[in-house]
Amino acid sequence: MGEADVESRLVHSLAISTAKPSQHFPLSLSFQRSAFASWIKENINKRECCFFEKGVREDVCKCGYAKTDHVDEAIKPEDFTGESWDRHRHIHKVPTDAFGEISFGGLGQKTGKYARVSTDTSPETLYELLTEQWKLSPPNLLISVTGGAKNFYLKARLKNMFHRGLIKVAQTTGAWILTGGTHAGVMKHVGQAVRDYALSSSMQGQIVAIGVATWGVIHNRDALVNSEGCFSAHYLMDIKSQGRLSCLDNNHTHFLLVDDGTQGRYGVEIELRSRLEKYISGKHLGNKDSGLTIPVVCVVLDGGPGTLNTIYNAMLNGTPCVILEGSGRIADVIAQVAELPVSRVTIVLIHQLLKKFFGQEYEMFPDLKIIKWTKMIQDIIRMSHLLTIFTVSEDHHGDVDVAILQALLKTSRTSESLGMDSWKRQLELAIAWNRVDIAETEIFTEESQWRSSDLHWAMFSALVGHKPQFVSLLLENGVSLRDFLQDEDTLCELYKKMPSCFFLRKLAKRVNSSTRSRRPAIGIRPRAYSGEMISMTHVSDEVRHLLGSFTQPLYPPSSTTTHLNMSVEDLSLSVTQRDLGRDLFLWAVVQNNKELAEIAWEQCRDCISAALAASKILKKMAEEGGDADEAEDMQELANHYEKHAIGVFSECYNNDEERAQKLLVRVSPYWGKTTCLRLALEADDKSFVAQSGVQTLLTQIWCGELSVDNPVWRVLICMVFFPLIYTAFLIFRRDEVIQRETEKNEEIKTVEKVTGITSDLSVHSNRPSMRRLNPLGNWSRLVYLYSSPQVKFYWNIVSYFAFLFLFAVVLMVDFQVTPSPAEVLLYIWLFSLVCEEVRQLFHDPDGFGFRKKARMYINDLWNILDVLSILLFIIGLIFRLTTELFYAGKILLCIDFVVFCLRLMAIFTISRTLGPKIIIVRKMMMDMFFFMFLLSIWVVAYGVAKQGILIHNDNRLDWILRGAVYEPYLIIFGNFPANIDYAEFQIDSCSMNGTDPLKPKCPVLNENQTPAFPEWLTIIMLCVYLLFANILLLNLLIAIFNFTFQEVQDNTDRIWKFQRYELIKEYHSRPAAPPPLIILSHLYLFIRNMVLCRPPIVSKEFKNKLPVNEEEELLSWEALMKDRYLLSTQQEQSQSMERRILDTAQKVTTIHDRLEREEETGTDAVEKRLARLEEQVIQSARALQWIMDIQSLSHTTDESPDTYVNTSEKEDGFHVNARQFNYPGSKLTRFPVPEEKVNPGGRTGITGRGALTRLGANLNVDLVFEGYVDDCRNTDNAWVETTVLNIHLDRTSQVMVDINNLLVSKHGCFQWQEVSGKTNLGANQREFLRQVAELHNRKF
Fold first, then answer.
1. Sorted alphabetically, which Pfam families does this protein's record hold (predicted)?
2. Alpha-carbon distance 836 to 55, whole Å?
């Protein structure tokens, strides 16, 4: 097995490669289509009729297809008298002949995938077709859109909200949209939503709209038929000529065309679609370890009775439904009664609503159907946890996507027992959908109480799934990084689950190399590759490689034994020493994840070091990476964190300069025990180093213990006349501190004297820890003066000038065969310089290592000049000591003197004025080299042509180069040759045959000894050459220099400040004595370090380890400054021009929506008021009718049945099961009984109305009781209610006269009757009369 193969297997085993084998070995398109066709033929079938029997028309079978569409075996003779056509027996399955890709043409050339499938195709096969063959990612949500199949009108605002919300929920959650797939009704609206929003957005490829349609009703379906598949099939949407058929919608992405072998029958796909939805809802959401299944939601627009059945069945299966109020018909009917109690949803109310929303279609509905629908609507309302009504109103500004997701969460909340499991399921759904807004409003409420440990799984899922908003939300709601990342195994798992990136590839190589380096023991079989092979040690090694070898490992390796022997206290201490925010920040940075890194950076304790370390890591990865785009992103993120570091440090420096400078040089235990300043230098963060706070620190180090306010001339005078330091001529830093403390104490005493109150500051100043500093002693002042890097630098300049002066004297005056004392002193001086260069090379206080230190040494231009000058001097010295090469040695030494003089420019780097100019000179030198290449083309071109024209066969190489290169070069500077012009030509200035080595060869001459070359040509060539060389190219060089100056001028100050650090550090570590006396210091260092083996002296100016308490206090203060910086950054962003433009645009949109809403709701408000007035009139009429009926004591009353409806709903009654639409525990439909038609006295065993005149209450007036009567005629759905009146009247009263008149007018319908205990009466009547007798103290 090859190394590359091993590495790829390893990457896959570490769970860091998400690519499939097909991505590694891409197959040809024709092969893929052939394999797809083979799979379709093996797994997908269609249905066709195998027995032709004429139907209504002679040439059309009962299956709906024409006779010509049948196979020959299906057509029987005309005298065939066998069996008749049966749909179950005469339609069989055959391999499908319609599949592939469909192209709709037109604008945009929309394409999709389709397949003709049988009605009994298993949902497993269809799901495999969608995910494996059509390469769809498994959904996180299934949205089943149903409703009106005919075109209907949607108001503009509702239409826009539906389109926007549907696409938003599909994009954010990764949902599949399932519809009927035809270009009509609600399916058309879904297609328009996909077209209007998905195709115009950057996420257009993520919208999946699957149409499940009936094959037999598709118009122009013949274009889709091809037994080998169509790639692609050109489908024509001919809506005008489709007739009763339907065209496919061109905005859907996939089509499942369900075939039952018939043509023209709608609704064939309903059963298969239902089974597919149920199967998908049983699949695991995300990975198999998840306990969640894919949620399904039904969205309803418009619709008729069939849609009502769909809603009812969906809710019985536990599928939540979202109904859009205002979309029309059955959706509006349900929306109107959704908030009412079930007892108020009466048949009369449903009649009214159906008539209102269905219009003329209402007249075709039979009464029994309406009763059935009323019962279904009542049952739907009872399942309120599955029903969500989306209302577009003035006080409701929600979106459809929010309503859909809230419906699912509401279902989840009520489907399980209230508690943590319910909340966890909702949170899992929200994370899978990546909808943090839903989690904020629906999950993290006051009702839910979360512990940090309860949310660890969610935090891990949000991090691995790259959901930064959820990470922030979880941190805000109680997740503790200390608890979450306490175990390194969690962090290791995060690295294993990291998405494919440059760091992961490098980590895989490191793990692979470490695996190969381990040799398995003899007889032991090596373990197979597994995810356990990755460890934090590998991560630590790779991060250290990116940060630099000068850092310590961030995750030190620890053996298993060590872990076993650690106590709980030790373990907690080790966790405390870790910055868990750093761990998360580093994990996000190495994968170049800006959003997660930003969140984690806010959790870091040492935020400045973290930002600078991120800049270093990202720039290193960008340098090593091969992908240009990825490298550009890394560089951009590195600059972003450099700005963060600058912002926080500026905030710190403005608050407290002394603390801010401590932050720069303190050893950071969280980032490899290095410093912020070192990280900034290694990351090449010039802008950070160029800050005033950093430069102030460098200036203080440069001046040493001397005050930074001392003028240079005073320092120079004190270098020579050092007794002046004992006066006030030169100020030391200690003197400034003492002076400030004295002034401060004087101010405190003044305040105490005036106020009479003892200040706390004076109490603190008297403590032993706050004692006043003592002035410097005489010896200390002298030591501090000459150990200052500034003074060392000035002495070295003086020494270097003296060295050059001695060198020049030796070369020009005293260069003898035998070295003179001055020359010997020069050699000693040079030896001291060599020793200093060696000391600089091996001096490594930062722990870079010799290899990196040597690389850094060579990368410095001044060090290159030092090495070059020393090498030339040594070679020249060797030549000079030999007699044969004595003069050559002097020449080399003279050249070496030039190099030493060039090295003198290094002294200007410390100057604020001349230092940046040195950088500009270096840039211009690079430009000049490229210009010289361009100039050399013209010089050589003109020189060779001129030499060839003038001189014939000159074999002297030196004169050839002189004529072809040197003379054309001199022409640029005005030295014109005399041999190109007849008037200036002199034959004495040249040699005829080229025999004189001091003269050039003469041009070709004529017989009269005059030049034979064409004068006009040489002059024209010279003019053209001067035109291009002198005018064009030289002005081009000036323009290049000007451009370089303008470009570099803005950055020279920043670059100079960055390079200033190395010069300051060099002279800070340099011995105080200048060359050649410095050799004594080198001798001391050699004896101390090499002979006595004493540890080197550690300086705290560049690297200072603080005590633990001071470290904690400093980091707490830094965190406070970071919060201030983030707050100021947010304020700047909110006040930026871009933000203001966005806010203005949002306000304009809001105003526009409000105007549209008011325009739409204006007419609606009037209609509602009229409807309310009409309802009040109807109620008044009913009340008057009731009064009239009571007065007339009519036997047959037409009161509205809903007047007698008991408004108290008893859900726990013993006959509740009688109200269900299906028999309990069964799917068999029973007699549809709405709530108002259920006998309140219980079941009687008889259904329907029986012998009574109507369903519900049948009013019967007997003679002191009102209500239900246990009559023998009662049924389950019809019963008797009686009103018993006991009226004692005088026979001569007017009422009796009226009653008698009524008896006469009714012609015997009413009559008086005397009753006694022996009268044949009903049981209820006897009981009523007994109660009347008791009222009058009579016996009955």
1. Ion_trans, LSDAT_euk, TRPM2
2. 111
Report pTM.
0.73
714 vs 720: CA distance, rounded Å? 10
Predicted confidence band at 368 (pLDDT cuts at 50, 70, 90)? confident
Q: Helical H runs in 705-820?
A: 712-720, 733-755, 760-765, 778-786, 789-812
Distance, in Å, from the CA atom of 1002 to the CA atom of 986, rounded to the nearest integer, reads 9
**Distance between CA 944 and CA 156 in Å, rounded?**
82
More confident residue, 1250 or 26: 1250
Contact (Cβ atoms closer than 8 angstroms) between residue 843 and residue 880: no
CB atoms within 10 A of CB 1290: 8
Rounded to an integer, what distance in angstroms lies between the CA atom of residue 219 and that of residue 248? 8
Extended beta strands in 479-596, E state: none
Please tell me the distance from the alpha carbon of residue 101 to that of residue 231, in angstroms, as a whole number.
5
Tokens of 690: 């160029």
Q: Cβ-count burial of 1318 within 10 angstroms (0-12 exposed, 13-18 middle, 19+ buried)?
A: exposed
Q: Which amino acid is at 248?
A: L
Distance CA 888, CA 815 (A): 13
Q: Which amino acid is at 1108?
A: V
Q: Is the bond preceding 1095 in cis, omega lying within 30 degrees of 0?
A: no
Place of tokens 């005078």: 717
Does residue 400 contact residue 354 with C-beta atoms inside 8 Å?
Answer: no
Contact 1275, 1244 (CB under 8 A): yes
SS3 of the chain: helix, strand, coil, percent, to 5: 60, 10, 35
689-723 as b/e: b if 16+ CB within 10 A: bbbebbeebbebbbbbbbeeebeeeebeebbeeee
Q: Which of 352, 371, 344 is nearest to 1178 (CA)?
A: 352
Locate 369 and state its tokens: 């159907």
Helices (H) and strands (E) in the chain, counts: 49, 15
**Does residue 22 carry a pLDDT above 90?**
no
Gap between the Cα atoms of 166 and 170, Å rounded? 6
Say how far apart CA 732 and CA 718 lie, in whole Å: 13
1042 backbone dihedrals φ, ψ, rounded to 5°: -65, -40
Place of tokens 């005469």: 90
DSSP reduced 3-state for 614: helix
**Mind listing the pLDDT tens digit for each residue in 595-609?**
999 999 999 989 999
Task: Name, in order, each residue with C-beta under 8 angstroms of 595's C-beta and a sequence gap of 6 or more.
Answer: 466, 468
In terms of C-beta distances under 8 Å and separation of at least 24 residues, what long-range contacts does 415-421 make, across chains too?
A: 415/318, 415/385, 420/454
1002: nearest Cα among 1058, 1066, 953: 953
Q: If DSSP states are collapsed to H, E and C, what string results for 1073-1091?
A: CCCCCHHHHHHHHHHHHHH
Q: What are the residues whose beta carbons fall under 8 Å from the beta carbon of 26, sequence distance 6 or more?
A: none
Q: What residue type is assigned to position 232 of the chain? A: S
User: What is the tens place of the pLDDT at every residue in 141-169?
Assistant: 899 999 888 777 778 778 888 888 888 88
**Higher-confidence position of 224 and 566:** 224
Q: Please list, in sequence order, all residues whose beta carbon lies within 8 angstroms of the beta carbon of residue 768, skipping any fewer than 6 positions away.
A: none
CA distance 685 to 1065: 17
Residue 917 tokens read as 């100019």
In tens, the pLDDT along 1304-1340 reads 776 666 677 777 777 777 767 777 777 777 777 777 7
Helix (H, G, I), strand (E, B) or coil at 367: helix
Paired tokens of 809:
């004297």
